[in-house]
Write a structure and sequence with these properties.
Blueprint (H helix, E strand, L loop, with lengths): L1 E6 L6 H4 L2 H8 L4 E6 L12 E3 L7 E3 L1 H14 L4 E11 L2 H7 L4 E6 L7 H6 L3 E4 L8 H13 L31 E2 L2 E2 L9 H19 L7
Parallel strand pairs: 1-2, 1-6, 5-6, 5-7
Antiparallel strand pairs: 3-4, 8-9
Bound molecules: 6-(benzylamino)pyridine-3-carboxamide (4FD).
Catalytic activity: guanosine(37) in tRNA + S-adenosyl-L-methionine = N(1)-methylguanosine(37) in tRNA + S-adenosyl-L-homocysteine + H(+)
GO molecular function: tRNA (guanine(37)-N1)-methyltransferase activity
Subunit structure: Homodimer.
Amino acid sequence: MRFDIITLFPEMFSAIKEEGVIARAIKKSIISINEWQLRDFSENKYKNVDDKAYGGGAGMVMQVKPIRDCIKKIKEQEPETKVIYLSPQGDPLNQNLVEKLSSFESLTLLCGRYEGVDERIIKNDVDLEVSIGDYVISGGELAAMVLIDSVSRRLPNVLGNKDSLNDSFVNNLLDYPHYTRPESIDGDIVPEVLLSGNQAKIDAWRLEQAKHKTRQKRPDLLSN
Ligand SMILES: NC(=O)c1ccc(NCc2ccccc2)nc1
């Protein structure tokens, strides 16, 4: 799977490219990440890609032309890529959407800054607007990294058995509780069932715990 990133801060992506699961997935050629510096598509010698907003207001808006030219360039290499715009106005990134996105061969992630991009980009060039949560951060880059991490983990052979495939949300339930040595610390002991060696009983207990936790903390997940 190939990720193309349109951004003003390409160097931010070294955070996921140099360490951990994503770095290994890149080494194993399961994924590739290509950053595109939007300023390289600027029309002026100052490398600006934003301008004042029509209708006034303090914020700057990212212009159509540099973004459209950059997408065009990416599509010369990846004609089938899906253009995803990370924004607070997007569809919530949940496990279902992560699964869907993991089926694409190529995703182009458009990272907004300032007040975001000119609406005509969203209307004509973006295939899907995605939000990682109901809050605003200073740019789409961190949201893009969250998307890359969550989607890449779902690709075959990305997770070795040692990286636990976090069961949260995969079956629409929160994860069961986890314990490790020592068996008792500060008078706090590990649930007996986990020491029983009876795997069927342990699995049943874990499923019950996941359901209980979900009912308590996220009943909304149960209505999916
Ligand atoms: N919740 C999110 O996924 C998210 C994505 C981007 C972002 N900041 C950049 C931006 C600001 C305004 C309009 C479009 C993009 N903040 C939060």
